[in-house]
Amino acid sequence: MSDTPSHSTAVAVLTAAGSGTRLGGRGPKALVEICGESLLHRATRGLLAAGVIDHISITAPATAVERFTAEVADLADPGRIGVVVGSPASRQASVALGLAAALRARPDAEIVLVHDAARALTPPDLVRRIVAAVRSGHDAVVPGLPVVDTIKEVAVEEAIERVVGTPDRERLRAVQTPQGFSRATLEAAHRFGAGSADDEARSARDDAALVEAMGGQVAVVAGDPLALKVTTPLDLALAEILARGEREQS
Q1: Which end of the chain has less neighbouring CB within 10 Å, N or C?
Q2: Which residues carry the site feature described as Transition state stabilizer (predicted)?
Q3: Closest C-alpha among 177, 14, 209, 203 to residue 90
Q4: Dihedrals φ, ψ of 116, to 5°?
């Protein structure tokens, strides 16, 4: 654990370079709308609403940088949000590009959050909890929810999958974003894992996995059901229902 000052600058990398093939869209996934608002706009708005993020670096498909920039232009001064080209190779490679851009914009940053635009309903309070946990001294923090289904480990190399184990679900968590890190820890983790960033099959599934791989400790705080990841049409339909309920209550 490290000592991160309570006044430390925090930046966020918002990953939004995905194509959204599984969602069935014809354009960038981040521009798919929930109740008339794109995933990108809603996720960016949520990060800013937390009141603890000083700069956001958004990773975009190479063909959509101008469109993404225009999409979030109404949310903050131009210097507070930047859009950079992500990598088609892997999410890990995209985060590395976004991290470099965020630190160029705010060289004084001591805390970095990595968030997925696909988790556009994430409450601002969860963002605040992650930043607070890093400021309290944890080098890496992820939000997680208890697993309610029984999980089976299977042998995938066979034509018909065969169960090889049943983990104790009391020890399992479904991990979400944003994930928070001290700057030094996240930079070191990406340096450590750089060799696998250009290979989707070998790249890290999340940034916490990079910290784990280099021997670091990752803390878990309570996640939030609203931080669900919009990946399939069913996820999108659920997100629409939740967003409508949120709008009716406000």
Answers
A1: C
A2: 22, 29
A3: 203
A4: -100, 130
183-201 pLDDT, tens per residue?
Answer: 999 999 999 999 999 998 8
Per DSSP, the three-state class of 227 is: helix
The pTM is what? 0.94
Domain boundaries defined on the chain: 10-143+177-248
Mean pLDDT across 145-161:
91
Q: Which amino acid is at 147?
A: V
Picking from 164, 175, 167, 174, the residue whose alpha carbon sits closest to that of residue 151 is 167
* Topology classification of domain 10-143+177-248: Spore Coat Polysaccharide Biosynthesis Protein SpsA; Chain A (3.90.550)
**Kind and range of the H or E run holding 13:** strand 9-15
Host H or E run for residue 190: helix 183-192
* Pairing mode, strands 140-146 and 179-182: antiparallel
Distance, in Å, from the CA atom of 162 to the CA atom of 241, rounded to the nearest integer, reads 37
Phi, psi angle pair for 140, to nearest 5°: -145, 130
